[in-house]
Amino acid sequence: MFAVSTKRGLGALVGALVCAQAWAAVPNDRWTDRTIITAFPYSVVQTDIGSALFNSDEPIAPCFPNTLNPGNGVWYSYTTGADTEYLNLDTLGSNYDSVLSVWTGTPNHFELVGGGCNDNGNQDASANTARIAGLRLAPNTEYSILVTRATAGTGSMTLKLAIDRAPLYRVTRTGDRAGSVCAAGDCSLREAISAANAAPGAVLIPAGTYKIELAGAEDNNASGDFDLKAPMSLYGIGMGATIIDGNALDRVFHLDPVLTGWTQGRMTAHFADLTVRGGKGSGSGAGFFSNSGGSFFSAERIAIRDNEAGGNGGGLQLAMRGYLRDALVQNNVATGNGGGLSLGSTSTLADWNFDIVGSAIVGNRAAVASGTGGGINSQQLVRISNSTIDGNEAWNNGGGINVDGSNAGIALYSSTVAHNRSDAEANGTGSGGGLRFNGGKTSSVRNTVFAYNVDPTNPGAGIFGPDCSKNNTTTLGISYSLVSDKRGSCSYTGTTNLLDTAPGFDGQLGDHGGPTPTLLPLATSPLVDAGDEAGCSDFTTGARAFDQRGAGHPRVVDGLGTGTPRCDIGAVEYEAPAVEPAAGVPALLAADDSGISSNDGITNVVQPRFGGSCRANATVHLLVDGVREADGVACADGRYLAAVAAALAG
Questions:
Q1: DSSP reduced 3-state for 51
Q2: CA 336 to CA 310: how far, in whole Å?
Q3: CB of 341 within 8 A of CB of 377?
Q4: How far apart are CA 125 and CA 121, in angstroms?
Q5: Above pLDDT 90, what percent of the chain?
């Protein structure tokens, strides 16, 4: 017995030693053991990548082919100082297919940083390296940098990682002027983009309206649309402040990474805090256009509105991976498919996905007889959460969303799809007022509202029609969702759905907090606390903390007051109105109440202090012998503290 036990113990010890040696070979294999970067420029050559693992708590970068098996992940991190910082990162010179991604958060709660994702986008003949340009980092924040291999492998692999401060191109003039130099104090938007095409970095655009004024269609950023030829990031200062206007002369932005030397025409282009409007052209994508399949597009806190395309994608035509976060796509028109967004193409790869999070796709039109997808037309996998698709129309299929193609699918979570219209011509051609599904990928809908969508081809008792239609045998699982008109070809199984039920919205689409418009449920709405009792999951690594409106609006609220918080169906949570405290009776502070007792309101303190409860936004005044003190005090967190300004005489 003793001998056997000893043998087992030795075997376990040997196994532990082998494991320890494997871990020791790659010291930054796990996030908990990440390499800390303290200063720039920073560079490292790491030759042990073949022994690194891809661990279960590591995120998969969305710029990465999601049907493949990532591997060999290593971690670095950097914490910013008191100021905003801009970085360039690359893996130039590495001898394996590397993917770069930058995150905030911790394992199982990572959030991709806007613009922080690239696979194969560099001026490197190996086609195996990655580059991110002009990445903006917030002050006093830790950022985690993950470098993975496209597919897991062993053997000799060397990573060369370089990080440095990014060139900054500051736009200072609103007039449109061509040139390759962004001069300090005298730089147009076009000049800044041309300079970033030559030396990638960040373009900083202050408040103002920047119109395309140089007419002429070409692809070298000399006139017409703004041509992005290399990786870069463009930052405004807010949706309503920084406005890029196509001036009806051309589309606004063309992502066209085909500059000599740039590998396979791939790049990451990032846009934030601005509005893109007024694009117009005979082709596709009046706001944004790109056919560069390997590139990655990301945008956050951006409005894409009032653009008109003669082909597909009134707002955006993108055949690539990417995402929209906290974005508004509104009042765009396509004389083709995808009034708001057109995603993918007939040659779309099976591993392409596009994510839409915390956004509103509203009032867009696919205005041609064959036009599908008033809000969104997708021929790739589109993943949507915490978003509102409202008031869009298609002259053919899919008033809100149309999914079509062997590589197409949808993951639609915690969203609201309402007031959309298919067959807008009412000629009997078109179906799926809210959603038309003809995708080849197994798909799912969860915690989502379909309501008041119109399908004139198959009207109901009133003006509405089936919210959802399906035209193939591919699985479309629908659960924990409310559907106001269940007729049509979509199927609903189980007992978790609310069918043929009115949603109980509190009015129309409007500003209810957050960066984008939303629809709110009434207190009596069946949507309240009707989501998945296990939690409103997302397609990311964890459930969203907030609803579509963002910080300050939790995703899970005890709307019914049962003591058990549970998420609602739809993009936003019902929040009971705040009850303001009643104005309190003024009371001397105990320290100043020096009468016979400590609460009789009698004092010999000549400048006594008073406190009590108050209503939000109130100003509290003291009166001495009927005369108001000169200055009042503001109510703070339901309380006030006021002191007599001058010594009392009596």
A1: helix
A2: 7
A3: yes
A4: 11
A5: 65
Q: Is residue 84 within 8 Å of residue 138, measured between CB atoms?
A: yes
Which helix (H) or strand (E) segment is 624 a member of? strand 623-624
- For the entire predicted model, the pTM comes to 0.85
What confidence tier does 260 reach under pLDDT thresholds 50, 70, 90?
very low
For residue 563, how many other CB atoms are within 10 A of its CB?
6
Q: Which residue from 268, 28, 6, 328 is spatially nearest to 129, judged by alpha carbons?
A: 268
* Contact predicate 291/309, CB 8 Å: no
Which pLDDT score is estimated for 56?
86
Token match 């006139």: residue? 223
Other C-beta atoms closer than 10 Å to the C-beta of 240 total: 12
Where is 20: in which H helix or E strand?
helix 2-25
Distances (CA, A) of 55 to 202, 458, 587: 33, 50, 61
Residue 90 tokens, joined: 């690359």
- Give the residue among 280, 276, 342, 275 at the shortest CA–CA distance from 309: 280
Contact between 364 and 402 under an 8 Å Cβ cutoff? The reply is: no
Give the C-alpha separation, 274 to 242, whole Å.
5
Average pLDDT over residues 148-156: 90
Q: Give the pLDDT confidence of 472-506 residue by residue, as tens digits.
A: 889 999 999 999 998 888 988 778 999 999 999 99
pLDDT at 151: 87
Q: pLDDT tens, 397-452?
A: 999 999 999 999 999 999 999 999 999 988 888 999 999 999 999 999 999 999 99
Q: Are 483 and 515 in contact (CB under 8 A)?
A: no
The yes-or-no verdict on residue 580 having pLDDT over 60 is no
**Burial class for 363, CB neighbours closer than 10 Å (0-12, 13-18, 19+):** buried
The length of the chain in residues reads 650
Q: In b/e form, how buried is each residue of 621-645, taking b as 16+ CB within 10 angstroms?
A: ebeeeeeeeeeebebeeeebebebe
DSSP 274-289: EEEE--EESSS-SSEE
Provide the 3-class DSSP secondary structure of residue 610. strand
What type of residue sits at position 179?
G
- What is the rounded distance in angstroms from the CA atom of residue 569 to the CA atom of residue 482? 7
C-beta atoms surrounding 273 within 10 Å: 23
The pLDDT of residue 646: 80
Token duo for residue 248: 């009806």
SS (H, E, C) 200-266: CCEEECCCEEEECCCCCCCCCCCCCCEEECCCEEEECCCCCCEEEECCCCCCCEEECCCCCCCHHHC
- Pick the closest to residue 408 from 340, 476, 309 (CA basis): 476
- Token output for 527: 């949507």
Please give the Cα distance from 332 to 152 (Å, whole number). Answer: 42
- Phi/psi of residue 127, each to 5°? 60, 20
Across the chain, mean pLDDT equals: 87
Please check whether residue 559 is in contact with residue 576, taking contact to mean a CB–CB distance below 8 angstroms.
Answer: yes
Closest of 555, 530, 557 to residue 543, by C-alpha: 555
In this structure, are residues 436 and 337 in contact, taking their beta carbons and an 8 Å threshold?
A: no
CA-nearest of 145, 62, 61, 73 to 103 is 145
- Residue 161 has phi, psi (to 5 degrees) of -110, 130
Report how far residue 515's alpha carbon sits from residue 532's, in angstroms, rounded to the nearest whole number. 26
